[in-house]
Amino acid sequence: MAEGLSRRVFAGWRGLGVFWVLVLLLLGGGGLWLDNLGPPEPREEAVAEAPPPAPPAPVPVTEVPAPPAAAPEPPQPPAQAEAPAPEPAAPSAETSAQAPAAPTPPPFDVPVAAPEFPPARPVAAPDPALLEQGRFGALPKVGADGRTSIRAYAGQFDRQDSRARIGIIVADIGISNAQTEDAIRRLPPAVTFAISPYAPRAAQVAERLRAKGSETLIGLPLEPAGYPLNDPGNRALLTGRSSAENIANLEWVLSRFPGYVGAIGVVGGMRGERFAAMEQSYLALQESLRNRGLLFVDARPGVAGPARAWGRSVDVILDEPATRSEIERRLVELETIAKARGSALGLANAATPVMVDRLVAWAAELERRGVVLAPISVLIRRPPETAENRTQ
User: Fold this and answer.
1) What is the DSSP letter of 38?
2) Which of the two residues, 66 and 357, has the higher pLDDT score?
3) Is 149 in a helix, a strand, or coil?
4) What are the residues whose beta carbons fall under 8 Å from the beta carbon of 184, sequence distance 6 or more?
5) For residue 205, pLDDT beyond 80
6) Beta carbons within 10 angstroms of residue 255's beta carbon
7) What ranges in the chain are assigned the alpha helix state H?
8) Which one in 2, 28, 58, 138 has a CA-CA gap of 20 to 30 Å to 348?
9) How far apart are the two ends of the chain, measured CA to CA in Å?
10) Is the pLDDT of residue 81 over 70?
């Protein structure tokens, strides 16, 4: 019995030994198999024994046959720059020095030179003979010799010019210092400027425009459509005010600065539709302006011209809306009207940057198309309702 037990124990230990031998063989063989599958480790002996994938150093230029088209002639880059490198690398200082310099890119938004319009002689200085003292300051009047502000302060223009005439009025001058400065500096002298009665330095602005040779108007604050939501200011002529109050406000407006040729019924884009609907008050306003030797521009496009004052109505509002495409479209429309009728009058509500830019570009090419820019005094008409009109 003891001998049988010993044999079984010995057989068990022998089987266990065989088992572990097989395990060790499997582990060793599996490791070798996995080692062959994975990426090679950077072992020095393996690198030494295996052939290199690429030359350890760049091939000399003399040993690389270059095709005829790639001959190293200036300003072609050197030949070694064309040989493929074993891995990407930054260009050396020598290669950078030999490569031709890249051309300088053109600057962005190169400003186009602003056209220079021919200068005009200055408008005449305010004449004391054409002024009288009012309750708020000096008011225009007809001179003892019959002279009027329309003639005395007219801008330079050749009235023998037979080409179609276009007048441009830019309103609300003097409210924004930046816009006023830009408009005075860039727009041609033939443009007429309507100074706002609420401009804080109206007299100084008027003097600068006089020196430029441009005619000036005074803006009249008349009750607009949508009042009181649309408010033309505390000196406006309103349908709800008495005649005495409106006369006082008119005298305040007319005394803001001297030397203008007339008035236009627009302030802040408001054009006095409700006040114009009161026919008697509107006609009385026109007659008052005519009696002071002033012209009147009705800012409502398409209406009949003033019935009792020298003047006319606006044909096209240029900046409603004040976008480049719309302004350009309406300038073309204004030009078409002028060629069909002999003259046309456009109104810009304000000297916004886009409005000034478009006017400058348009005016620079205007005469080449057979049209001439003219001040407002050249475009006015005789009032039809008065048989015996004063001459200018």
Assistant:
1) S
2) 357
3) helix
4) 193, 205, 208, 209, 212, 214
5) yes
6) 19
7) 2-37, 44-49, 93-98, 149-152, 177-186, 202-212, 243-254, 273-277, 279-291, 324-341, 353-364, 376-379
8) 138
9) 155
10) no
Q: Using an 8 Å Cβ cutoff, are 188 and 212 in contact?
A: no
- Omega cis (within 30) before 321: yes
Query: Is the distance from CB of 290 to CB of 384 less than 8 angstroms?
Result: no
Instruction: Determine the average pLDDT of the residues in 341-355.
Output: 98
Given a cut of 80, whether residue 15 has pLDDT beyond it is: no
**Other beta carbons within 10 Å of 187:** 24
Write the pLDDT tens digit of every residue in 316-335.
999 999 999 999 999 999 99
Do residues 217 and 261 lie in contact, with contact meaning Cβ atoms separated by under 8 Å?
Answer: yes
Distance separating alpha carbons of residues 238 and 232, to the nearest angstrom:
9
Q: What is the mean pLDDT of the chain?
A: 82
What lies within 8 Å, CB to CB, of 149 at 6+ separation is: 130, 140, 259, 260, 261, 262, 292, 293, 294
Q: In the chain, what percentage of residues exceed pLDDT 90?
A: 68
Determine phi and psi for 291, rounding to 5 degrees: -65, -20
Judging by DSSP bridges, how do beta strands 311-313 and 262-264 pair with one another?
Answer: unpaired
Closest listed residue to residue 360, CA positions, set 124, 203, 225, 168: 168
CA atoms within 13 A on the CB side of 72: 14
Q: How far apart are CA 204 and CA 338, in angstroms?
A: 33
For residue range 26-50, list pLDDT tens digits in order: 555 555 444 444 444 444 433 344 4
Task: Render pLDDT for 224-237 as a digit per residue (tens, 0 to 9).
Answer: 999 999 999 999 99
Residue (of 215, 161, 167) closest to 313 by Cα position: 167
Confidence (pTM):
0.71
